[in-house]
Write a structure and sequence with these properties.
188 residues; alpha+beta; Alpha-Beta Plaits; 2 domains; 5-stranded antiparallel beta sheet
Length: 188
């Protein structure tokens, strides 16, 4: 089976060359929440429509049980792609039938800053790994399950993240194993 070339991570190729790049005066960033395993196909559709986008990707290497090395190019943020455009471009992206939702980006400057940093990290030549949605030390609220509504801090114990609820007066608390899908990040 032939090895397919990696999908382009952005369109146009010089997307990050100009700090204030806008394809037109009404262009803004949108975060597209994509159906599972449809990020690259959505990027191909946007590229064919000449719609600017950014899909940060990483190389993942694994070994088969037989010892063969397998390299895959995967989205850094599974299920998300960033579109730079106007309302018409949003409509075109919806017509791909691959979207779950379109998240409006309130702080455009902050998103551009964050995405430029990610782009620079990915092109540094260093090994980059995805970070869970609730980083260690972050304040989160549990949104599902029997602990829904509790707020606390994320800590790492061994290879998994744990949620910590603390009695501040005592400086003591309790922990429970945490899954990213169970929490929302609280503002600082």
């Amino acid at each position: 089976m032939p090895i397919l070339p990696a999908e382009p991570e952005m369109f146009p190729d010089d997307l990050w060359d100009d700090v204030d790049r806008r394809p037109n005066p009404s262009g803004r960033w949108y975060c597209l929440h994509i159906k599972p395993r449809q990020e690259k196909a959505t990027a191909r559709d946007l590229r064919a429509g000449q719609i600017p986008f950014y899909l940060p990707q990483i190389i993942q290497e694994k070994r088969t049980p037989g010892g063969r090395k397998i390299r895959s190019t995967l989205p850094l943020f599974a299920g998300y792609l960033f579109l730079l455009g106007d309302k018409e471009h949003r409509l075109i992206s919806l017509q791909t039938n691959r979207l779950v939702n379109i998240l409006d980006v309130v702080d455009q400057a902050r998103l551009v800053y964050d995405l430029r940093q990610i782009h620079q990290m990915l092109h540094s030549g260093l090994k980059i790994e995805p970070e869970p949605t609730a980083p260690v030390g972050g304040r989160v609220r549990i949104v599902s399950g029997p602990l829904a509504g509790l707020a606390g801090t994320v800590v790492r114990r061994g290879k998994s993240d744990h949620f910590v609820a603390v009695v501040q007066m005592l400086g003591l608390g309790a922990t429970v194993v945490l899954e990213d899908w169970q929490v929302e990040i609280l503002p600082d």
